[in-house]
Amino acid sequence: KAGVTQTPRYLIKTRGQQVTLSCSPISGHRSVSWYQQTPGQGLQFLFEYFSETQRNKGNFPGRFSGRQFSNSRSEMNVSTLELGDSALYLCASSFGTGGSSYEQYFGPGTRLTVT
Amino acid sequence: AQSVAQPEDQVNVAEGNPLTVKCTYSVSGNPYLFWYVQYPNRGLQFLLKYITGDNLVKGSYGFEAEFNKSQTSFHLKKPSALVSDSALYFCAVRDGTGRTALIFGKGTTLSVSS
Questions:
Q1: Partner residue opposite B101 with nearest CB, options A48, A98, A100
Q2: What torsion, rounded to 10 degrees, do the Cα atoms B52, B53, B56, B59 define?
Q3: Are A34 and A50 in contact (CB under 8 A)?
Q4: Which residue of A35, A42, A102 is in closest CB contact with B98?
Q5: In what order do the strands lie in the sheet with A74-78?
Q6: Which of B9, B27, B15, B113 is nearest to B74 (CA)?
Q7: In this complex, is the C-beta atom of A28 within 8 Å of any C-beta atom belonging to chain B?
Q8: How far is B100 from chain A (nearest CA, A)?
Q9: Per-residue pLDDT for chain B (114 aa), expressed as one digit of tens each?
Q10: Which of A67, A78, B21, B76 is least enclosed by beta carbons within 10 angstroms?
């Protein structure tokens, strides 16, 4: 089975621009979660989607948004980029959202640099 | 609110010695507990989980973890460390309802010397 894929792997943007990151989950997985990883803050939860519905949302400003499509693929968007948005953005998929079906599998991440 | 604490930023052990990476948690109700490992410039890899059942959980690469409800701990262990185990380790928790997100600790860097 192919793993979680994220595109692009690397991205350089300028302050004020917007960016869209994409995540394709493992085949058959219906839940996708997004995380931001920075050296200072560690792994911080952004969103969780299941069957196109946002189930949970982390404590991030409204500039961060996401969605999930009917094929379980997910995108996240960051508008009006700030320098502090520079981070590794990780996507994880799982079969479901409860119990043993919640084992998450992570993609390699998208490294976003904002200049 | 649920939370995870990894009290040590770094753990240093010699190859062949046992290793322990500590994790304590706070969650309402029954916890779902996980350990992940991250190698440089890579995503996280799942090591093991505790959902229910035996308190001693065995996982990938010879790692195991012990769930201790009274101490709200889920320490990661390995009887004999390898240099290749050097990486960043994350503990994560979610409550048993499945309605909350998976929350990660800050991570512990494990350094195994030869």
A1: A48
A2: -60
A3: no
A4: A102
A5: A5-7, A19-24, A74-78, A64-68
A6: B27
A7: no
A8: 7
A9: 789 999 999 999 999 999 999 999 998 888 899 999 999 878 899 999 998 889 999 999 999 999 999 999 999 999 999 999 999 999 999 887 767 788 999 999 999 999
A10: A67
| pLDDT, tens digit, 9 for 90 and up, residues A45-88 | 999 999 999 988 999 999 999 999 999 999 999 999 999 999 99
Chain B residues touching A42 at Cβ < 8 A: 104-107
pLDDT exceeding 90 applies to what percent of chain B? Answer: 78
Given an 8 Å threshold on Cβ–Cβ distance, is A102 in contact with B99?
no
**Do A98 and B101 make contact, defined as CB atoms within 8 angstroms?**
no
The residue in chain B having the minimum alpha-carbon distance to the alpha carbon of residue A10 is B41
What's the token pair of residue A31?
A: 């839940």
The answer to whether A107 contacts chain B (CB < 8 Å) is yes
CB B39 within 8 A of CB B87: yes
The DSSP call for residue B97 is T
Q: Give the list of residues 6+ apart from residue B35 with CB closer than 8 angstroms, or none.
A: B21, B23, B47, B48, B49, B59, B63, B65, B74, B76, B89, B90, B91, B92
A12 touching chain B per CB within 8 A: no
